[in-house]
Amino acid sequence: MANKHNPKKPFKSEPYFRDKMPLKSSSGRSSLGTPSILKQTPNLKRRLTEIVSSPSKVRFQMPHLKNVKKILEAYVNKEETKAYLQLICIIRDSNLLNNDLRSLLSEATECISLLNQDLRLFIEVLLEIKWIDQSDEVVKDYQDFIVNLLSAHNYHARYVLSKLIGLFIPYPKDPYWPEGQIPESDRRKCLNVHTVIKSVLTVVPMCKPLLLQTLIRQYPYYNKPVHTQEYYLHNLLTILSYQPSFSDDILDLIFSKLIIMDINAPKEVLQEEPIENEEIFQMDDDNDDLKSIKTVNTAYTVVDRPHLGVALDVCIDMLLDYLIGQCKTEEGDLDKDKTKKIYQAVLTAFDKLVLPTYASHHIQFVMFALCALKPSLTEAFLNYLWKKVRNPNVPIVLRQAAITYIASLVARGLFIPLPLVKASMYQMAEYIHAYIANQDAVECLNSDLKAHRVFYSVCQALFYLVAFRHRDLIESKKNIIFLESLQLGKMVTNRLNPLRVCQQAVVQNFAAVTRKYQLAYCYTIIDHNKRHFMPTIYRDAKGSQMVSDQTLNDFYPFDPYVLERSGQKINPYYRHYQEDSYSSHIDVESRESDVDDFLENINDISNPKGSYQFSYGGSPGFKFKV
User: Fold this and answer.
1) Exposure check for the chain: N or C terminus, fewer CB within 10 A?
2) Distance (Å, rounded) from C-alpha 504 to C-alpha 606?
3) β-pair partners for 301
């Protein structure tokens, strides 16, 4: 029989309805962008009464609470379809008040046994209702409905959890959180969602794996707006408050996403001046932050990297607040057991995700901040890294990364005491001398960088520490004797010739310090290496011809931190380089005033009379500029 409202289109079963009539979202707009076909009305009870008492239906005199149940039963029994579809339209299009919503949820809860997969459309439209900013009574009724639904029909769990986690994405017009201060209205909305999720996980434990899958799947793309990133991250960390068993998985997820943001927001870009033509990166809605540019053969995405840096700053700041807060008691004191637990969880994520990542810029400072909390954490972290360096079963690239983390942390951490600095340097010297002794027993020595990469990396780390921390190591005669005991001269004159492959920035500053205090004489070797320098040509695993300059990489993970907001938690524990005027070979007039790290304005890398200083090059590690 044709529909009297639209003679051209007969009513069909549910599949037709689901395909042809899009549901309306909580914002009042159809999910497919088409307007509703029904007129909105604020009175749900009156419309429900009209459905039951319409001329085309048999009249039943029953209380209002039985209306929805009657409609659903008729649909399940294939007795009546029109009333069910009209009920869906009413729920979708009506502006439901608190009383209407409570009444509907109460009726739906009484019909739980009927809500199988045949009534999936009814469940979907209920989950589209905007309920999180309603009264506490509505939230309680909604919680009861969800828990009862999943207890009776757990096959709805995936869709229900997807809709709940979708509420962790703010609306495009929602205001930002200034300085991380969450408005009470947003805090309450988030708490309402977590109340439901917590109850679901308690009553239906099988939902835990589904929840983790949903959290991973719906994590915002790395270039989404700042508020989207901080809103989702806040809710992820809130889940850990009532589900601590998720700690490792959620921290892994957070670190993996922040690493992607980190490597796409390099320091040199974040330090540049803002782009004048801001229209290029205007973001009027949630999708405007990505611009696709098409060329003849391909298409690529333009990323607003300064804006991405702001999002990364906000997220790292929030993560540090959470981790440091979890380490402390209510009185603000450091809790030993909690701190150890947090350290182990972060170390797991660091080992799996951060350490293998080359040239990350900021995310590794999470571990830096944790080490600053307690000396025992610093010692534990350095021992963990040194074990990797010494373990021949660990991939060489990870062993090299581990030694650069040791050198950078010991050089930059204000919280690292001098005895620990000396202990780290002594470990490196022992390793170097043992390695040299083993190689001296070999008649035919291969001094290629690829054959001794870990050895050369340890040498560079030790030379770096001598150059960077020499101020602390010359304050007493005892410390100068310690430097002499390292036998630095033997290191630089052995057949493996580490000065040949170390970064020139490290070599020149190390040479200046060792000459000043008569620890080693390097300039003759440096000049010799310069005259006999020759690139190496080799083939990689794929057969491609490669040219190597036989120099170690310049990545130092704890180079100056450039993010402002989260940097407030890093800077109190961070050592910036203080330039010396001790070396007579440095041209004072060519120095620049506000520089931090390695070598700027170098005229001749082989000339000991050139101008050398530590300066920060704008990207991770030390840059040697000519």
Assistant:
1) N
2) 9
3) 292
Which H or E run includes 546? strand 545-548
CA 354 – CA 352 distance, rounded (Å): 6
Distance in Å from the first CA to the final CA of the chain:
86
The DSSP line for 556-597 is -TTSPP--HHHHTTTGGGBPPP------TTS-GGG--SS--S
CB 205 within 8 A of CB 154: no
Distances (CA, A) of 383 to 301, 335, 417, 432: 42, 22, 15, 17
What are the angstrom distances between the C-alpha of 182 and each of 177, 230, 292, 304?
A: 6, 10, 33, 25
Environment class of 30 (CB within 10 Å of its CB; exposed 0-12, middle 13-18, buried 19+)? middle
Rounded-to-integer distance, Cα 51 and Cα 59, Å: 10
Closest CA to 624 of 471, 530, 475, 502: 502
- Residues near 538 by Cβ (< 8 Å), separated by ≥ 6? 545, 546, 548
Instruction: Provide the phi-psi class of 533: left if phi over 0, else alpha when psi is between -120 and 50, else beta.
Output: beta
Q: Are 372 and 558 in contact (CB under 8 A)?
A: no
Q: How far apart are CA 165 and CA 494, in angstroms?
A: 61
Q: Are 68 and 87 in contact (CB under 8 A)?
A: yes
- Residue 55 per-residue DSSP state: T
pLDDT in tens, 114-164: 888 888 899 998 888 888 888 888 888 888 899 999 988 988 999 999 999
> Could you tell me where the beta strands, DSSP code E, fall in 219-363?
290-294, 299-303
Say if CB 522 and CB 465 are below 8 A apart. no
Count of beta carbons in the 10 Å neighbourhood of residue 93: 19
Question: 466 is written with which tokens?
Answer: 């001598």
Q: How far is CA 24 from CA 28, 90, 171, 216, 589, in A?
A: 6, 11, 15, 26, 71
Q: How far apart are CA 515 and CA 612, in angstroms?
A: 14
Q: Which residues contact 240 (CB under 8 A, 6 or more apart)?
A: 246, 247, 250, 322
Residue 242's alpha-carbon distances to 162, 184, 235, 344, 345, in angstroms, are 19, 20, 12, 19, 17
Report the pLDDT value the prediction gives residue 161, as an integer from 0 to 100. Answer: 94
Bridge partners for 30 per DSSP? 24
Strands 545-548 vs 299-303: parallel, antiparallel or unpaired? unpaired
pTM: 0.78
Please provide the DSSP assignment of 6-51 as one string.
-TTS----HHHHHHHSPPB-TTSSBTTSPPPSS---S-HHHHHHHH
pLDDT (tens digit, 9 = 90+) per residue, 208-224? Answer: 999 999 999 999 999 89
